[in-house]
Amino acid sequence: MAERPEDLNLPNAVITRIIKEALPDGVNISKEARSAISRAASVFVLYATSCANNFAMKGKRKTLNAGDVLSAMEEMEFQQFVAPLKESLEVYRREQKGKKEARKDKDKKADSEEQDKSQEEENEDDDERMEEEEQNDEEEVDN
Amino acid sequence: AARLSGGENRLVSLPLSRIRVIMKSSPEVSSINQDALFLTAKATELFVQYLAVYSYKHGRGKEKGALTYSDLSYTAEECETFQFLADILPKKILASKYLKMLEKEKQDGEVGGDDEEDED
């Protein structure tokens, strides 16, 4: 599957926001700097993925998991990320669990009542559009 | 703290779907579990913050209250942790300087015969 070049970029608005909030108020960020950071972020993803994948392969697994990513951070000398990442992961897992249960309840209701299609949950957030992926916890090879 | 960037209380701002596309562009990757995807996105945000702050702190743009490209390329060159970025954040020099460099190289001797100038 061929990706268009822009697909490998991250959204400018989000990158800019992250930078702005990290820097002191009033600091100007040149367009070139912002674009450079965005590219750097994409490279970071690639590097982290490759590194994490090595750990997965070592463990004879085909699926990258959380531990692989954390190991990659240490390997890449970003140890300081590990603690905050673990914290966030906890919160994320709880959120996901909550959503699942909410969905289960909805399914139950749908069975006993009429087909009630109220999918308004988090459909507004595009990065929450992981529904498709949530249905299968374990992704199989899907090239 | 789980709160992240933005006045929003989002756990992560970068879109997971896009992060996933980038990750999958690596040929040797088969599948990615949900937690790994989330962590990669979150780590990338931390990385962006770190790169920006580090470059600002150590760079000269600060003198004018700005973060500039050269602050970033300086970081990539000088800081070992960021060296993997050196190729995509090359230092820039003035064209005139570059031409002078070329001149000097020529004068220092012929460059072993593979002097192919492909000017488009």
Automatic annotation (TrEMBL), chain A:
Keywords: Acetylation, Coiled coil, DNA-binding, Nucleus, Phosphoprotein. Residues 94-120 have a biased composition (Basic and acidic residues). InterPro entries: CBFA_NFYB_domain, DNA_Pol-Epsilon_Subunit, Histone-fold. GO terms for cellular component: CHRAC; epsilon DNA polymerase complex. It is found in: Nucleus. It comes from the Eukaryota. CDD domains: HFD_POLE3_DPB4. Signal peptide: none annotated. Residues 121-143 have a biased composition (Acidic residues). Pfam families: CBFD_NFYB_HMF. One of its GO terms (biological process) is leading strand elongation. Gene3D superfamilies: Histone, subunit A. SUPFAM superfamilies: Histone-fold (SSF47113). Accessory component of the DNA polymerase epsilon complex. Participates in DNA repair and in chromosomal DNA replication. Forms a complex with CHRAC1 and binds naked DNA, which is then incorporated into chromatin, aided by the nucleosome-remodeling activity of ISWI/SNF2H and ACF1. Does not enhance nucleosome sliding activity of the ACF-5 ISWI chromatin remodeling complex. Component of the DNA polymerase epsilon complex consisting of four subunits: the catalytic subunit POLE and the accessory subunits POLE2, POLE3 and POLE4. Interaction with POLE4 is a prerequisite for further binding with POLE and POLE2. Heterodimer with CHRAC1; binds to DNA. Component of the CHRAC ISWI chromatin remodeling complex at least composed of SMARCA5/SNF2H, BAZ1A/ACF1, CHRAC1 and POLE3; the complex preferentially binds DNA through the CHRAC1-POLE3 heterodimer and possesses ATP-dependent nucleosome-remodeling activity. This is DNA polymerase epsilon subunit 3.
From TrEMBL, chain B:
Forms a complex with DNA polymerase epsilon subunit POLE3 and binds naked DNA, which is then incorporated into chromatin, aided by the nucleosome remodeling activity of ISWI/SNF2H and ACF1. Does not enhance nucleosome sliding activity of the ACF-5 ISWI chromatin remodeling complex. Keywords: Acetylation, Coiled coil, DNA-binding, Nucleotidyltransferase, Nucleus, Phosphoprotein, Transferase. The gene is Chrac1. The keyword Disulfide bond does not apply. It is found in: Nucleus. One of its GO terms (cellular component) is CHRAC. This is Chromatin accessibility complex protein 1. The keyword DNA-binding applies. It comes from Bucco capensis. Heterodimer with POLE3; binds to DNA. Component of the CHRAC ISWI chromatin remodeling complex at least composed of SMARCA5/SNF2H, BAZ1A/ACF1, CHRAC1 and POLE3; the complex preferentially binds DNA through the CHRAC1-POLE3 heterodimer and possesses ATP-dependent nucleosome-remodeling activity. Within the complex, the heterodimer with POLE3 interacts with SMARCA5/SNF2H; the interaction is direct and enhances nucleosome sliding activity by the SMARCA5/SNF2H and BAZ1A/ACF1 interaction. Within the complex, the heterodimer with POLE3 interacts with BAZ1A/ACF1; the interactions are direct. Gene3D superfamilies: Histone, subunit A (1.10.20.10). Residues 13-72 form the Transcription factor CBF/NF-Y/archaeal histone domain. Signal peptide: none annotated. One of its GO terms (biological process) is chromatin remodeling. GO terms for molecular function: DNA binding; nucleotidyltransferase activity; protein heterodimerization activity. Pfam families: CBFD_NFYB_HMF (PF00808). It comes from the Eukaryota.
